[in-house]
Write a structure and sequence with these properties.
The chain is an alpha+beta fold and about 180 residues long. The chain contains 6 helices and 6 strands.
């Protein structure tokens, strides 16, 4: 069962650069090592930007947590204290195998794919079943993006990622006929 984890864009960039080894949270679900964590970058990005595998999860007192992961969490001590204000314990999630998507998947595109303009990403995190419409939509987009990326090398043509449903039923040009844009001309 994958999860969606929301974070500020600067922390997502630090994960993908390999500098950030632990993600800090006030609380976190008990998920097995290897769980897929899809990163939603908030603020001005508002997109799914990549993922990582959950490694070990450490639940520690705040003082011990800072001593254990402080330098690897890429937050200042001041930010750390502000985040964990009024908490006695915290969680450090080990980040394994980070993977940045070749192209970010915009929140609005996922909403369109699931036909729910009101869906909002979790403020913190949310564990979802593999067949949840959000996971399916992200996977559809990702498969198109990866397919487009591999075809770029073959024909040097830049393609736009679209969800599966749009590829199948997208309106083509002229006379309202439908065409599959994945087909070559």
């Amino acid at each position: 069962m994958p999860l969606i984890i929301s974070m500020r864009p600067k922390f997502a960039r630090l994960i993908f650069s390999g500098e950030k080894k632990f993600e800090l949270r006030r609380k976190f679900a008990r998920v097995p090592s290897g769980t897929r964590a899809i990163i939603y970058a908030s603020e001005n990005v508002r997109a799914f930007v990549g993922e990582f595998k959950v490694g070990r999860i450490f639940r520690l007192r705040i003082d011990d947590l800072w001593e254990f992961v402080g330098p690897y969490a890429k937050v200042s001590f001041k930010e750390f204290l502000r985040y964990f204000k009024r908490c006695t314990k915290g969680v450090a999630i080990e980040i394994r195998d980070p993977f940045e998507y070749p192209k970010a998947i915009p929140l609005d595109a996922v909403r369109l794919e699931i036909r729910d303009n009101m869906w909002a990403p979790p403020v913190d995190y949310e564990v979802l079943p593999d067949n949840h419409p959000i996971i399916v939509a992200i996977d559809n987009y990702l498969s198109v993006i990866m397919q487009d990326k591999s075809s770029e090398g073959r024909n040097n043509r830049r393609l736009v990622a679209r969800p599966h449903r749009q590829l199948v039923g997208e309106r083509g040009g002229g006379r309202g006929k439908r065409r599959d844009p994945a087909r070559t001309r």
